[in-house]
Amino acid sequence: MAVPDRKPLPFIANFTAGAIAGISEILTFYPLDVVKTRMQLETGKSKHGLLDSFRTIIKEEGFGRLYRGLVPPLLLEAPKRATKFAANDFWGKTFLKMTGETKMTQQLSIATGCAAGATESFVVVPFELVKIKLQDKASTFAGPMDVVRQIIKKDGLLGLYAGMEATFWRHVWWNGGYFGCIFQVRSLLPKAESYQARLRNDLIAGTVGGFVGTAVNTPFDVVKSRIQGAHHAPGVVPKYNWTYPALVTIFREEGPAALYKGFVPKVLRLAPGGGVLLLVVEATLNVFRQMLGPPYV
């Protein structure tokens, strides 16, 4: 049961719990991310479903290919978590002060999530770009640093921020849907009277939030993958450049279903992944509370 006067844990504890949870989620669900990217980079009518994509990758490229590009998201997790926690704290306090509210509402949760997602997007773009380049079936890069070297050589340092605008919109829509949904689901669930009940509520709310966040941001994720995975000659204007025109192009040329390519592996990762994140965070924070004792317990 929650204790009203329990002192909040220090930032380092929340940061560590978030990093542990994020790394746990990545290691558990990463192969689904590889399959999702492959499906999104495929133009025209989809040739492979989820299971067929897994079989094809393992048969033609080996099981290890399902973990190609794993290093960038692992390296990203610490700065990403630090940015996420700091941004959530900053924007949450800012919106509370602006509105005069004393506690979070669903509208403020959505606004805070969107603003924090926009802030986070500036940190993640280079790591996402390297990951997409390595996950592509046509990739010939030797590893993450080879990707970085070749991008800088070809396009300069700003080349590492290809897909910045699409990543911005992807994170804004994901965070808005995820946090807004979590707030609503938690308010509908029975009040947790024990630690186990709180974990159950977190798992349910996180899973539903993950599904909703995925449903609203997948079209932007498809565009981001197309922009970051593009192969074009120097001086040639890329087919996919800005987010909303690219959405229209994909819709017109491939139909509305193309905007949801990779949705199944994405939702299979991020729906339970959202639950796992909240579950691991809460479990890790509870360990810190027990270690530190009063007044944190």
From TrEMBL:
InterPro entries, per the entry: MCP_dom_sf, MCP_transmembrane, Mito_2-oxodicarb_carrier
Solcar repeat ranges, renumbered to this chain: 9-94, 104-188, 197-287
Keyword Transferase: no
Keyword hit for Ribosomal protein: no
Family matches, as PROSITE patterns: SOLCAR (PS50920)
Keyword annotations from UniProtKB, A to Z: Membrane, Mitochondrion, Mitochondrion inner membrane, Repeat, Transmembrane, Transmembrane helix, Transport
Topology in membrane: Multi-pass membrane protein
SUPFAM superfamilies according to UniProt: Mitochondrial carrier (SSF103506)
GO cellular component, one term: mitochondrial inner membrane
Highest taxon in the source lineage: Eukaryota
Family: Belongs to the mitochondrial carrier (TC 2.A.29) family.
Protein name stated in the entry: Mitochondrial carrier
The organism's taxonomic lineage, starting at the top: Eukaryota, Fungi, Dikarya, Basidiomycota, Agaricomycotina
